[in-house]
Amino acid sequence: MSPSDEPLAALVSGTAKQLTRAFEAVLTAAGGSTSTWLVLSALKADDHRTQGDLARAIGLKEPTLTYHVEALRRRGFVTREREPGNRRVQRVVLTDPGEQLFLRLRRAAASFDGRLRAGLGDDDVSALRRLLAQLAENAEPD
Known about the structure:
Layout: H1 8-29, H2 34-45, H3 51-58, H4 62-74, E1 78-83, E2 86-94, H5 96-117, H6 122-139
Helix pairs in contact: 2-5, 3-4
């Protein structure tokens, strides 16, 4: 089978795996990981989320998020605070070292994004976004 005959799903899946490995390596070199980036980015986008809100925003199950948040807490990047009106609800809050890690990871992610965009114009990037969205839509069951 020639590369032009390869099913699109296999091509996109293989490319996604390659990009995921490369992105993980970049984030690891900056002192984090993909999961760290996802948690910190979500916290920066909407500060003082509950753990449940944070899990939904990232697309993780709460026990999985709890594992990642606990690892970040042990490293001093986040704290958990009880919500005053409901002691059962915990909010996850960035610490100053967490803020610094977020900034390092954001710079690393932006640099990686620049690498990916090399040789692509704005129209190419827009077309790629549109095509990927169309493939995702087409993949949904009827």
